[in-house]
Write a structure and sequence with these properties.
With 260 residues, the chain is α/β, with parallel strands linked by helices. It contains 9 helices and 7 strands. Bound molecules: nicotinamide-adenine-dinucleotide (NAD). Nicotinamide-adenine-dinucleotide (NAD) binds at residues 9, 11-15, 33-35, 49-50, 69-71, 73, 97, 101, 120, 122, 176, 178-179, 181.
Length: 260
Amino acid sequence: MTYRILVTGSAGRLGRAAVKALVAKGHHVIGFDVRPTPGLPPGQSLVATFGDVAVLRAAMQGMDRVIHLAATPDDAKYPRGTPPDDGDNFLDGLVPNNIVGLYNLLEAARLAKIPRLVLASTGQVVDRHIDAKQIPLTGSARFAPRYLYACTKVFLEAIGEVYSREHGMAVIAVRLGWCPRDLGQVAEIERSVEDQDVYLSPGDAGRFFAAAVEAEAVSGFHVAYATSRHRTELIYDLSETRALTGFVPQDTWPTGATEW
Ligand SMILES: NC(=O)c1ccc[n+]([C@@H]2O[C@H](COP(=O)([O-])OP(=O)(O)OC[C@H]3O[C@@H](n4cnc5c(N)ncnc54)[C@H](O)[C@@H]3O)[C@@H](O)[C@H]2O)c1
């Protein structure tokens, strides 16, 4: 069975991986990003932002699935500097995109009666348990967010659960592992065995998103983890993800890390 799927953030690191895997499986994919989406013809690559509510709502019409990846990404450092330059990007980056933009997305999905959404959360919502070696982590682990970006993903999981419960949509909030966005991040993962254990290859990311949209009989709200295979220690328990979607990772660090 093939679906009509809207992917937001489709030109980004994980968006491109999702689009590639979904197109390969014969799904009809519409990209939504502030820049054109590689791998999609112009007619299927919408160039817009969440502020363009009319475009967003029109894009939702007739969709079977929505994969929501567009967001302001995490800062490597928090606060960004030392006083007096110790600010953050909460008000000017995270709130407009990860809170207001997410709300616009969910409202558009509710109005269009989208049956299933996959929302990009992050393993950073339970980050502090890893430092405390309280692993492996399941979907029911108490929130222990890293910084302010992770707090916006706690909100994403909370509002995802509300929209699922109140509006009857199936929502999978996926706590994604680390898929490096540039060579600096590749080098960072190379230096840390723990980071290698939460690595998510583009290939496995694509397989996860395909499994999440294709899985039969998904209803209600779910938290899932998506990583590649761990090398030394199991940090995120993938058994709930496997039971829900059938996803089984195939790669280990560094497979695919520098395939952009
Ligand atoms: N890459 C990772 O390791 C990782 C880990 C955990 C969670 N995530 C989450 O996965 C999602 C995708 O991450 P990524 O690494 O691909 O990020 P990315 O920065 O490579 O891609 C994000 C894309 O979203 C687009 N975008 C941002 N704001 C937008 C807006 N308002 N309207 C339209 N498009 C917008 C950007 O142009 C970009 O192409 C994000 O939600 C991120 O928080 C990523």
